[in-house]
Amino acid sequence: MSQFDTIRPFYETEANAAIRQIIDDPMLEAMMGFTFPDDHSKNWKNLMLHTHSLRDFQVNFIYPGVKKVLEKSSNGLSTGGFDQLEPNTAYLFISNHRDIILDTSLLNACLYENGLVLTTSAIGDNLIQKPFLHILSRLNRNFAIKRGLQGRALLESSQLASAFIRKSLLNENRSVWTAQREGRTKDGNDATHKGVLKMLTLAEEGKDQFSFFEKVKVVPISISYEYDPTDVLKMPELLAKSRDEKYVKSENEDFQNLLRGLMGTKKRIHLQVNGLLTEEIKEISTSGLGSGEKLSQLANIIDQKIWAGYKLWPSNYIAHDLLYGDEEFKNEYTNEEKEAFEKRLREKVDIQNDFLVKSFLSMYANPVNNQIKALSPKET
User: Fold this and answer.
1) Is 5 among the domain residues?
2) Which of 8, 41, 72, 344 is most buried, taking the most CB atoms under 10 A from its CB?
3) Is it the case that residue 175 has pLDDT exceeding 70?
4) Does 350 lie in the same domain as 245?
5) d(Cα 276, Cα 281) in Å, to the nearest integer?
């Protein structure tokens, strides 16, 4: 047994056997029926049964599915910065996180279209409890991050994930995607958790674990949805937190979020590559700071890059003006766009509940505030 067997994707030699386990699953048939609406099931099944690699599975089945999702539930995907990346090169992509499946799926679609190395991507094991989803995630080259652990079990799990990420990047030339924090951003205030960066360094031997970042190519990614398809589904958790209550998910909540994220209205989407942090990391490494301060500095730089690279849509500017009761950004949207956003607000949220209205607007307005902070001249 490999030390990574509890978290890793399938090996190439396991791909076909895994496919055969789910080939007649109703969920796969529904997925492929959506992806290939004009194709008879025996055709895609025949192709799938003759698939023997994870890349072929991703390219022939996942990629067309992502394109169909974009066609059916968005007004298109725009990108920037992919020309900064080199072929046959592994990158550590650290991204803001809004949607369970789509964030990493869109990145891989763009990497494929640009002839770049696809990622192995972190996914919480709470999202893949169903046998079908577990097999599908491993075929899609996801590796599992174990949730709900504490103490020694959490440390050992983090060390295992760190070792897998290190091996992928440095030994296998495989890019890695991870979110900047555990779980999705619920309030639109994208912030890098120092604990995520600490986890990445745990497999680095020697006193200076931060040196891990000097050995890999760190690339911050910004993903921006004009409409967050799961915006209203994030409200109950925000409400519970406002009351200092422990939030307990309903039984199928993660799956509902997953489906809504795929099929809910998004309007336009933008994915921005924000360059390599090679120079910034070198500067932090030679700063003489302690390990905690180094991680804090790196987290701050990643935040600045993600905020600056975030594509602000009319929905963000409208929400900002509504939240603060002014017209500071009225030139960034039309009356029709404002009316459409206000209609969405009325349909999604009880407008008599001030907290929910403010939370909904903040979710869209916070990226505006963060970008202003990122682009404002720094005091010296």
Assistant:
1) no
2) 8
3) yes
4) no
5) 10
Q: pLDDT per residue over 214-254, tens digit each?
A: 999 999 999 999 999 888 888 777 777 777 777 676 667 77
Pair 307, 367: CB distance under 8 Å? yes
Taking the C-alpha atoms of residue 311 and residue 282, their distance in angstroms, rounded to an integer, is 28
Range of the domain at 211: 76-311
Q: How many domains does the chain have?
A: 2
Q: What's the rounded Cα separation, in Å, for the pair 23 and 89?
A: 33
pLDDT of residue 379: 57
252 and 339, same structural domain? Answer: no
Task: Say whether 115 sits in a helix, a strand or coil.
Answer: coil
How many Å apart are CA 219 and CA 86, to the nearest integer? 12
**Crossing angle between the packed helical segments 235-242 and 354-375, to the nearest 10 degrees:** 100
Pair 323, 358: CB distance under 8 Å: yes
280, 158: one domain = yes
Predicted TM-score (pTM) of the model is 0.94
